[in-house]
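Can't paste images in this forum, so I'm doing it all in text. The chain is below; anyone willing to post the predicted structure tokens underneath?
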Amino acid sequence: MNVHSLRHRLSRLRATIAAPQLPGRDSAIDGVHDLRSNHALSRDEYAHCVELIGTLQSLYDGAPDYVARHGIDPAIVNPGNEWTAISPVAGIKFKTAYNDLNFLRLHAPFAGYHMPVLDRLDAGGKFDKAEAAAFVTELYVDGVPDDIADQQRMRFDPLTRLRHAVPEYLEHLRNIPPRYIVCTPRMFGEIGLDVNGVLVNPDVILCQSRVNGLYCSGVLDKLQADIDRRGRARVLEIGAGWGGLAYALQQIFGERLEYVVVDLPSSLFYAMVYLSVLGGRDDCHLLTSDQMPPERFKYLFLANHLLDRALPALGPVDLALNCMSFPEMSAVQVRYYGEVIKRLIGRDGVLFEENGIVHAHHVDCKAIFREIFSYHRHVTSNVVTTKNWCQDVWTTRYIGTIFDRSDVAPLKAD
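Text version of the structure:
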């Protein structure tokens, strides 16, 4: 066993927890995991992250020239719609300070939940926003200070701010096999309540809801069948956030799952750091502009402007994923990704997406997918708790594992 593999196993041992027992409704909160208990990045892990970030910085800085030289349509690869104002095509300098990487989750509110203040800062927030917004801005502008654990605990008590999430979390475990319970690493600045050995916060609940949707829709059964038949399965996620769902699926299927993350370089930063450390660094690859994807990998991180070049080596894909970012793109970009996914999944793969029109500027990706895919299933369940209003599965043919489910009938797209 090489040094990286050994470190990976030790990291897994300290950063994760044993498979939990299904808690009952009367389960008590066992304690609080806050920044004082954060499992710190090692010196080697930090050095590896900095090296990766240097490569990603070069990819980001060189993207405009690459796009121009290769005749790529900027309307496809440049940030569109909602992301135009969020992610500039030039001028970003990725954070490399130790505290900013060690507490990565403090800078990653992809689903709108801000870990430093344990609340949302939009209309969905539950607590006063004034002090919280100022604190979030301070951390982003000035960086994470050495005394962040004391500052965070003093200003925003985790028990007070997270107690409300426990009943919702327990509801999400209803009828879920222990194998599919999301176990979030106690690294990168994750904060949560300890409930029966599992770290709980709203981001964990959101990830659990997505796993539940994959479970009740038959997608997890399909992935297991793919692995049993071929020894492995491949997942492609467009926009993986900080990597929470990717890590959850890797914990379920282990080394037999190959995972591709495609994202804007500015967003790829988070999943790349998070997953490459948790993945043990071995077989985790950031693709550069002069490389093609390796034949085998654990995680492959792919800047979106390199997707066309890598396509011939990416398929077949057994599962494509997108959660809550297709509507934030332009309609042209959604159609592009839909066509790419159709090509990669072929006759045997599926697209699972969780998307809704939340704001007036959001694109109706489901209307576009009805024009691309032949079969569609809207995911709902009375058996487990999931997002019955916005989860859908799309395929190019009738797949019994997906459509022969007792609670939902298949719908032939018009």
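Residues 43-69 form the longest helix (27 residues). The two ends are 54 Å apart (CA to CA).
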